[in-house]
Amino acid sequence: MSDWIHNLPVLLMALVVFGFTYLLALAIFAAVAALATGERAKSFKAVSPGMLPVLGILFGLFVAFTAAQVWGDNDRAGAAVSREASALRAVMLLGAGLPAEQEGRLRELIRSYVEQAATVEWPMMARQQASLRATPAALAEALQLVVSMTLQGAGQQTAQREIIAALGSALDARRQRIIVSQAEVNPVKWWCLYLQAVCELLVIALVHCDNRLTSAIALALFATGVAASVLLIAAHDRPFIGQISIGPGPLLQIMPGGPSG
């Protein structure tokens, strides 16, 4: 699905998905009703109702496999952001054991990195344009600052090692969230999902072609189920775009000088 659909509020996305699915069902209903005359009606009625549960099960499997991918992507994205925030929080806490000048510079670099991530990287991830080619300058400088420190005492040296490890963990978590930002349900899966739905709708219309009211009710019920399934998947399809996407909140909460910093 395109960016403009994912950017819609959930209510408007629901209107688009339900509207498209109902129009699809209406087109099938009208086409079968127009063709179901004379000998064609007898041929349509000869279609076995036993196909309905088989096609329904296949559609359910399509939905389950697609939804499993989407939930997995969202779980990985949320875990990456939380791990990144936890690592940066650890850097700031451990920084208290460093000399005052170095601690202040380290906090400034963390603040700069968080601001950059929230204002630049998040919109880029929403557009699937974020890249791993460039290392964030603020974290790179923070790592160089800590590595180059000449420290005294076992306490400061231990803090230095732990800060380096935490900065490495933050960098790895950033890589993971950028990788996950590229994940989405590919067009082939969407086409196959709707093609399976069309097959089921068509068989429903053929089986009930002699009773238009029954056909309309059955088509409407199945179309509602299709639209609800598609809406649920589409609303969670790409982790960093849309009304219910994963935001930079955990990072902003640990920003130095902020409410929790």
| Distinct helical segment count | 10
Rg from alpha-carbon coordinates? 27 Å
H/E element string?
HHHHHHHHHH
**SS strand fraction:** under 5%
Flag low-confidence runs: none
Oligomeric state, counting identical vs distinct chains: single chain
Q: Mean of the pLDDT scores?
A: 91
The helix/strand class is: mainly alpha
In whole angstroms, the N-to-C terminal distance is 39 Å
Percent helix: over 70%
Globular, elongated, flat, extended or rod-shaped: what is the shape?
A: rod-shaped
Quick one: how many beta strands? 0
What is the makeup of the main sheet? none
Structural features, described:
This protein has about 260 residues and is an all-alpha fold. It has 10 helices and no strands. The chain has helices at about 5, 10-35, 40-45, 50-95, 100-125, 135-145, 155-180, 185-205, 210-235, 250-255. Helix 4 runs antiparallel to helix 8 and helix 6 packs antiparallel against helix 7 (about 155-180). It is rod-shaped.
List the helices and strands and how they pair.
Blueprint: H1 3-6, H2 10-35, H3 39-45, H4 51-95, H5 100-126, H6 137-147, H7 154-181, H8 187-207, H9 212-236, H10 249-253
Short structural description:
The chain has 261 residues and is an all-alpha fold.
What are the main properties of this structure?
mainly alpha, 76% helix, rod-shaped
